[in-house]
Specification:
Radius of gyration: 18 Å
Number of strands: 7
Structural class: alpha/beta
Distance between the termini: 39 Å
CATH architecture: 3-Layer(aba) Sandwich
Shape: globular
Strand content: 15-25%
Strand order of the largest sheet: 3-2-4-6-5-1-7
Helix content: 25-40%
Amino acid sequence: MKAVMFFMSILAGTLAGASDLSAESRSAKVEGAPALVVVRTYNYAAVSAERLAAAKSEAGQIFTRAGISLEWISCRVPGADDGAACTEPLLAGRELMLRLVDRTPATGERIVALGESMVDREQRGGVLMTVDLCPVRAVAGRTSTSLPTLLGRAVAHEIGHLLLGSTAHPRAGLMRALWSHDELRGLKPADWGFSAREAERMRQTTVRAVAYVASARHAASTTPVAP
């Protein structure tokens, strides 16, 4: 599999991100029943239940505005007694894996990666993402941003990469590559949602996944079985 790591980064200085928000780039608002995406969460960073719930709520609200509902499954990690076994196969485009880690950062970096996603260029999709609590915690402290809010936005950004199956970072919206300190502090206008085009592409990804499973089940049910 030809996979590429995609990074959502934040400038450690005051370099600005996107400034102009066109009508097409503003957060999508979608009517009707949302599509469903299941996120299996592996909390290796030992994020507290309260903070993790708030981060999930932040990410969930972002996706709700895009017409997609997120369902979270807590999966067991080494050293923890709770969580599901999570041994069932993943449904690509409908089920994803989130790893929360807490790594020691490299020194002297101006641009800090909060997360990364594994995206298959040929298949235009992926299932695995990682968000690092260490830089999330540091940036939240420097910008007086709520840690769960920043964590939720970082998770939503990485989910976006997997569902969009793309390396693209637009100039505006949640999927832009750089988030400046002024944007995080609320001193500069910033959009923390998906564009209408991005929302539609992600919903189509979930629709194709559901159609594939339905087709596979139908084929299995009609396959002759030898006595």
